[in-house]
Automatic annotation (TrEMBL):
UniProt protein name: Uncharacterized protein
UniProt lineage: Eukaryota, Sar, Alveolata, Ciliophora, Postciliodesmatophora
Region described as Disordered: 58-77
InterPro entries according to UniProt: CFAP298 (IPR021298)
PANTHER family associated with the record: CILIA- AND FLAGELLA-ASSOCIATED PROTEIN 298, PROTEIN C21ORF59
Biological process (GO), any one: regulation of cilium movement
Pfam families in the cross-refs: CFAP298
Family classification: Belongs to the CFAP298 family.
Organism: Blepharisma stoltei
Amino acid sequence: MDFYHGSLQCWYSKVLILKNLHKVKIFLKQKLITLVCWKRNDERKRFTHPAPWTNQWKYKNHRENTKARAGSAREPVVGAETQKNMIAFYHKKQEEAKKLMSVDEDEYLNSAWADPKNLKRQLNGTGDVRWRI
């Protein structure tokens, strides 16, 4: 078991690397930090690194400020009216894309201009003639 007295900074206690130690206690000037490990750790891994043995180690930092701080308020990038227009434009484009996707790709083959014999019928003048028996 090793004891460290003296001037370890608070931020350093978070990234303390354990090298082949089972139990470590670190005493700082004012507060106590207790680190308890039951597995040997790789020297490149830190306590901030997600470990597969999370149920086997315990980390307490009494000097760390645990209060959540709210972020500073900032102005929106676009105005409310501009955002409404952008959303309307987006939905319009989505509806057009849905309509285009719903159209069958082979539908043009049944049209008159896609018929290969249509030109011959038009030149002979027999385009709209229907035979009845």
